[in-house]
# Entry
Amino acid sequence: MELLRVDCLGKELRLEGSMAGWQQLFWDNAVVAVKEASSDNQGSYTHEFELLMQTAQQTEATPVKISLKIDLNWQPFSLKYQLLHEQKVLTEGSRNSKDIEQQVPVKPAEVQRKVSFIGLASLGFKLLKSVKVIKVVLAGASIAAYSWLFSFQFALALIACLVFHEYGHIKAMKHFGMKTKGIYLIPFMGGLAMSDDKINTRWQDVVISIMGPCFGLLMSIVALIAYWITGETFFAGLAAFNALLNLFNLLPILPLDGGHILKSISFSMNSTMGLVACIAGAGIGVYLSYSLGLALLGFMLLIGSLEIVFEWKTRHQSHLLPLDRYGQLFATAWYFLTVGALIAIIWALAGTGDEILGLPLKILQS
# Structure
């Protein structure tokens, strides 16, 4: 995780570290100081190092002593710093979680590689993703697939639900200043909101993940109001099945939105809690996949299992700033309120006596 980036004698000084306690200090992309991992992972300490500087009047470089004083607290995150040159303050300031969310991590220098078939294929795939026509092709394929399974009218309604859901993710990404590539509709699998940037905090992961179902909830509420005003059963069906779709997405199973929320909350507590919670979520997924015969969910579980393994292996080097206690409680409450509201819509429409509108509730009861 990038903790700090400031100017030091005309070149960039960058501090990177993790909650495991290790830190590395880079000056002009060269390591100048290292703090090994330890249980003492916060508090006040000083990085002291020497830089070789040479002016136009000098024939040889001379060593310059630099000190970086740090006062670090992880939960809630705060960092105060003071950069000194021979006891003279060069710069000082502080950072909080908002600064971490908005920063753009330094990208390592690209290494030139020889031309290969795999490299050309990778380049071709990247170019393909950047072409807007692929979005239209995937959208058309999705409409055709869902029309084949259900009907053309239902396919259009389902696509509208998916797009509105994914737009919630896009809106959250833009809130954090992330560059977005747009929405890709994938036949039989739903949709995908893509971004060029990576998240820096667990809070970003929670907000981006839950905003999709929240936008879906908003759409169901609007459809429900339209049903009360017009009496058209179509709007009631849209509200009920859209609520079921978003409720499914909130299952605590990776790589679904609910799984990402669970992962961010539990891994913010500690890595063992995160592993146990994500494995328990995968267990729920295996049970649902087997009992309901959902082969697609089984495939998604495989992807989620790889994500769990990756999170566990990189737990000591994670660049993601964890949620503090308030953030954990707030995210948990937000999650359960969203789930409760979606269930309430399904329950209310099932009470109308219409057999079709009662189907989502029967699916939940099964």
User: Anything to note?
Assistant: The chain has a mean pLDDT of 80. The chain has two domains: 2-102, 198-365.
